[in-house]
Design brief:
The complex is a heterodimer of chains A (498) and B (303). Chain A is an alpha+beta fold and 498 residues long. Chain A folds into four domains: 1-44, no CATH class; 45-121 and 374-491, no CATH class; 126-219, no CATH class; 226-358, no CATH class. Helices cover 15% and strands 32% of the residues of chain A. In chain A, the strands form seven sheets. In chain A, strands 16-15-14-13-10-11-12-9-26-30-29 form an eleven-stranded antiparallel beta sheet. In chain A, strands 7, 8, 27, 28, 31, 32 and 33 form a seven-stranded mixed beta sheet that branches. In chain A, strand 7 (99-105) and strand 8 form a beta hairpin. Chain B contains seven helices and 14 strands. In chain B, a hairpin with a 6-residue loop joins strand 1 (5-8) and strand 2 (15-19). In chain B, helix 3 (74-88) crosses helix 4 and helix 3 (74-88) packs across helix 5. The longest helix of chain B is centred in the first third of the chain and has 24 residues, at 32-55. Chain B starts with a strand and ends in a 15-residue tail after the last strand. Classes of the chains: A alpha+beta (498), B alpha+beta (303). Chains A and B meet through strand 2 and helix 10 of A and strand 1, strand 2 and helix 1 of B.
């Protein structure tokens, strides 16, 4: 028992209905729907219902007055989607079983197989929007001292991390597996997780929130690389300043040498940049990677400059240096010895620096859950598991993860990725294996379900499932709704969403 | 706090009402206007039923005294009336043994006083209150709940039968049981009576002291259980055929006594794929098991 759990009361009071059961730890209430799991009230049946945003109320308040109008159909199943999100399979009496729900969507009988999968083959891909150096490619990413993943490629304005996976879950030490499992569940449930990267930074990641790098929250995602920034803003700088350097660890841009500057007729300034010149106005490796200006390790931008060329440069030359997010900037004027001297940024230039910042998107960490639906999970849907795989590949079956769209990777098996922030809260659980418990739904036409050997006898009507729903949440955008016709091969001619 | 909810099941015939631990499935036959009135009456009555029970819950969870329990609620009084005869016999029983049947009965009564129906039922999680107009009949399938639910035969109740309640109890349902029966289905004059009797017969299907029967105090399963510190069955190991029949026989004896006292019409008991039936001989409800030997209703019938 964790220390936190020890401080929680032995009995909790359930307020889900007027019975107000006191439920002891490990026990369920009178309804068998709510239970006390380590001092927390949890729902023990695996039903969470998503409601389509456009729909009217699906469960209206219970009416007792004669004057109330009787609608006849209080719950409208067509605008609801039963997800596989449950209370977690750690509850001892809870046995994950597929829930097979049917509903009619605009004249088409649809079936959704709802189950909570237990995934050993799973992990997350994290995209951290930052220019700052998190660590070298392939460096170990650690949580609680254990390696739980590694740094992978740098992408546009961001750094990718690959975390979890079967080798950390079950291939390492017992502690490595447990820490990896905790980390995955917390990240997928939207909780912040702290990582340290070998030879790099410490970082706190939470899905859809700004990353915190070495204790500082990242605000902005770069507007572009240094060279692109020059291209975007050259016109706004023209006439107000003689030279602009956009400092970037990847590609530092120099206005007077850049194609954009040439087009505007900006004259040479005699500036000399450290690092390796790539093409005119574009420099690589102007400094070491770090958490300073533009993802470099510098805090004084002048350190990337060599002395100005005295044959070209003139005293009084005006120089703006700015980072790719507009967070840092400096304005300099060359003195008689052609040395840049910092001065206050002229009011006329401020808008251009602010414009860079304005054009930056908020920096986020985004988390995609990636997992493979294995044999036993597919067997919960059909007696002939490979037929489910084929049905998915044939676009007859749509895969969603807690109602969120899942991208199914081409090739063998059902290996999918889904954005955890598009899923309902607390959609993920774990089992001590260690493995992650995640919701997965397969939706298809009733006849397609029959054709793949589905458990037709186990189908229940959606309105029944809705009665049992413990939570109702608003679903994400309509276009991604799991029963939308366009997801299916048969629905693509004639188009439209139901 | 979740309020009561109502929904029609697909097809628009069956009404589902749910509040907290109570789930009712209701179906009525008759003219459209009558059915509509009945549905409204059911909904109106259901609105407050759980709150009424909760108000007297502490008393309803206590062992029933042999006479004179001071409960006010209409449903609570139905519960007391159903269990009181058994308490008077000296059996341990709380009014909660009849709660499901009593709720079903109460809702059905309100439907019938609001509307003229040919036939109706209120099914409260397997405890069913019935209305049968002249010439009507009701067919219900029993399921022998075990690891694999199996067809437990069918029951047909006709308007002339003295049966308006059907209830099923056992250790696989939501309630916890003192006995080892997979399920016991009882036909009785009222749903509350059937409910109480099914609970008690299921308790009687037992093998006291047998090592294969795992027991724990009821409070360790559900700390506010009305069964208190009594040992409830939490698991069952392998049993021989003779042991199964011996356990069923104990339950059958209890059922036969109840039938003789006029409290139930029939009972079907199921354990590990075997079953026994106590049924009324001659006129009255009949209960047929697949492949069963047609023997005098007072004797054990191997399925």
């Amino acid at each position: 028992m964790s220390e936190a759990a020890m401080h929680k009361p032995e009995k909790i009071r359930c307020d889900a209905c007027p019975v107000m059961c006191y439920i002891a730890r490990g026990q369920a209430g009178a309804c068998d729907r709510y239970a006390n799991h380590d001092g927390e009230l949890v729902r023990v049946d695996p039903l969470l219902v998503l409601e389509r945003a456009r729909a009217e109320a699906h469960v209206v308040p219970f009416f007792s007055g004669e004057e109330a109008s009787w609608q006849g159909d209080i719950i409208s199943p067509g605008d609801t989607f039963v997800t596989a999100v449950g209370a977690g399979t750690t509850y001892p009496d809870y046995k994950p079983a597929p829930f097979i729900v049917s509903q009619e969507i605009e004249g088409v009988d649809m079936v959704t197989v709802v189950t909570e999968g237990i995934f050993s083959y799973c992990g997350v891909k994290v995209k951290v929007d930052t220019d700052r150096h998190l660590g070298p490619e392939c460096a170990a990413v650690r949580a609680d001292g254990e390696q739980v993943g590694h740094v992978t490629t740098a992408e546009y304005g961001s750094q990718m991390l690959s975390l979890g996976g079967v080798r950390h879950l079950t291939g390492g030490s017992k502690k490595e597996g447990r820490v990896t499992c905790d980390m995955l569940m917390n990240l997928c449930n939207g909780e912040p997780v702290e990582f340290s990267i070998d030879g790099g930074s410490s970082i706190v990641v939470a899905a859809n929130q700004a990353p915190v790098i070495n204790g500082v929250a990242e605000e902005r995602m770069r507007v572009g690389c240094g060279s692109a920034t020059i291209g975007m803003f050259a016109r706004q700088w023209h006439g107000l300043v003689d030279e602009v350097v956009v400092v970037d660890d990847h590609i530092t841009g120099v206005l007077s040498e850049h194609q954009a500057g040439k087009v505007l007729g900006i004259e040479e300034t005699g500036i000399r940049i450290k690092g390796r010149r790539s093409t005119p106005g574009r420099y690589f490796q102007v400094a070491e990677p770090g958490t300073g200006w533009g993802g470099t390790d510098i805090s004084d931008p002048l350190t990337i400059l060599d002395p100005f060329n005295p044959k070209v440069a003139k005293p009084g030359l005006r120089l703006l240096m700015v980072s790719t997010t507009g967070e840092q900037s400096g304005y300099y004027v060359l003195d008689d010895e052609l040395k840049p001297v910092e001065q206050e940024l002229p009011a006329a230039l401020k808008p251009s620096v602010e414009r860079i910042a304005e054009n930056c998107e908020p920096a986020l960490s985004t988390v995609l859950f990636m997992a493979g639906a294995g044999g036993s999970l597919r067997a919960g849907a059909t007696e002939n598991p490979v037929k489910l795989t084929r049905s998915v590949k044939d676009m007859l079956t749509y895969v969603s993860c807690g109602g969120a769209p899942a991208y199914v990777w081409p090739g063998g098996g059902i290996t999918f990725m889904a954005d955890v922030s598009a899923m309902p809260k607390k959609a993920f659980g774990y089992v001590p294996t260690p493995a992650i418990v995640a919701p997965i739904e397969f939706t298809m036409r009733r006849e397609d379900y029959a054709a793949l050997g589905g458990h037709m006898g186990a189908i229940v009507e959606a309105s029944e499932a809705l009665m049992k729903a413990g939570r109702r949440e608003s679903g994400h955008g309509q276009s991604a709704w799991p029963t939308a016709r366009r997801h299916y091969r048969w629905g693509q001619d004639g188009g439209g969403t139901p | 706090m979740n309020a009561p909810v109502a929904a029609f099941l697909p097809g628009g015939r069956r009404l589902h009402l749910q509040h907290g631990p109570i789930d009712l499935i209701i179906e009525a036959w008759g003219g459209a206007a009558e059915r509509d009135r009945a549905h409204r009456a059911a909904i109106a009555r259901f609105d407050t039923i759980l709150n009424e029970l909760v108000a007297e819950l502490a008393l309803l969870r206590r062992p029933c005294p042999p006479s004179g329990l001071a409960v006010k609620g209409v449903v609570a009084r139905r519960m007391f009336a159903a269990v009181q005869p058994f308490a008077a016999d000296g059996l341990f029983v709380t009014p909660m043994a009849a709660v499901a049947g009593a709720v079903a009965e109460e809702v059905l009564d309100h439907m019938l006083s609001a509307a003229d129906l040919d036939k109706a039922y209120v099914n409260n999680g397997g405890d069913i209150a019935l209305h049968l107009g002249e010439g009507e009949r009701f067919d219900v399938a029993m399921i022998a709940l075990d690891a694999m639910p199996a067809d437990g035969g069918r029951v047909t109740i006709e308007a002339g039968d003295p049966v308006r309640g059907i209830a099923t109890s056992g250790r696989h349902g939501r309630s916890i049981s003192l006995g080892i029966a997979d399920s016991v289905t009882v036909l009785a004059q009222s749903a509350a009576m059937a409910d109480a009797a099914a609970t008690l017969i299921a308790n009687a299907v037992d093998l006291p002291g047998h090592p294969a029967v795992m027991r724990q105090s009821a409070t360790s399963v559900r700390h506010d259980s009305d069964l208190g510190e009594r040992l409830v069955v939490t698991g069952l190991g392998a049993l021989t055929r003779n042991e199964i029949d011996a356990a069923l026989g104990r339950g059958l004896a209890a059922a036969v006594d109840m039938r003789a006292a006029g409290r139930i019409a029939a009972a079907a008991l199921f354990l590990r794929g075997r079953s026994m039936v106590a049924e009324a001989v001659g006129r009255g409800a009949t209960c047929r098991l697949p492949g069963a030997l047609q023997v005098d209703g007072l004797e054990a019938i191997p399925a």
